[in-house]
Amino acid sequence: xxxxVKAERLVPLDWMRGIVMVLMAVDHSSEAFNAGRLFTDSFFxxxxxxxxxxxxxxxxxxxxxxxxxxVFLAGTGLAFTVDQKIKKGESxxxxxRDIATRGAVVALFELWIxxxxxxxxTWLLQVLYAIGISFLFMVPLxxxxxxxxxxxxxxxxxxxxxxxxxxxxSDPTQIPLPLALLVVGGERPPLxxxxxxxHWTAIMLLGWVWGRVLVAKNPAPSQIARQLAIWGGGAMAxxxxxxxxxxYGNMLLYREDHSLVQWLHVSKYPPSITYTxxxxxxxxxxxxxxxxxxxxxxxxxxxxxxxxxRTPMFFYLLHFPLLVGASxxxxxxxxxxxxxxxxxAACVVVVLYPACxxxxxxxxxxRHVWTRYI
Length: 374
Fold this sequence. Notes:
Elements (H helix, E strand, L loop, with lengths): L10 H23 L20 H9 L3 H22 L4 H26 L5 E3 L1 H15 L4 H23 L8 H8 L1 E3 L2 E3 L3 H21 L3 H25 L14 H5 L8 H24 L7 H7 L1 H18 L8 H28 L9
């Protein structure tokens, strides 16, 4: 019989984080170098009938996995961290303070990214903003029983489109700023709100519940793989049904035909049911395969994917300035194509891997308070 694993079982989660960091580098390299980059992942951006070249579309599509996985595993990691703090005897107040501080710091990191992505005096609120605010929401939400937390997460996913509709009303230009910041997103100069956190908190809650189950039951890799495969298949079925219906659940970004690109052309801004189900389904199936792999081969804790997966914030904060800076200095910003996109992503991973390898033991040592947030 396969015995439950403890530290080893975390390696597939690190592999998963490492995979999405590489995919994220592809997306941001495309943003820096690719003149043909598609950015049509919302009803607000897409004009019906706009061509979706397959190679460009799929390059963008494969990177959609990044944000949901990053947010989901942030919730899972939070469950592990809170459990460790409880076992050490830390008070609920101390735990809440740590989560809130982490959330505020992560959200403020978005200011650093904005310097490299948008014009001066403009602030782009992307995935770090969503993660940071979601951490703040988790201060009270972490007290919910697992069943209630799961129900709340699924409700937010299912009701997301209705919530956006209620907030927008008849005049989208009159949305109150708090609703734009939390639910709808959009441009409210000097802010560009790309990731309204209510939708992403639902994904973090799902990761939190799964993390608590792992902590409580300590299942064997075979059990984890089986559960993930079932959940992934279920999520993919939800995607197929809702996308086929082509009505509610698509955040108004409907299929125009039955081509592959139209089936996969789902709304990320804000995330629709189809987007969330598709990406979390893909994530779950990949992680199921990774856990299954650990049953056949002892996982290594020193590989390059593990290194990237255990230093994701460090990598994230450095790769943006490197890619944008290189494209600007070379005079190639938005001047090239897909070959440059993938070459740029490969280069930034190769360049930052030694730095991540150096930073990983420094972070693990816990000697410096600031490493808790990077």
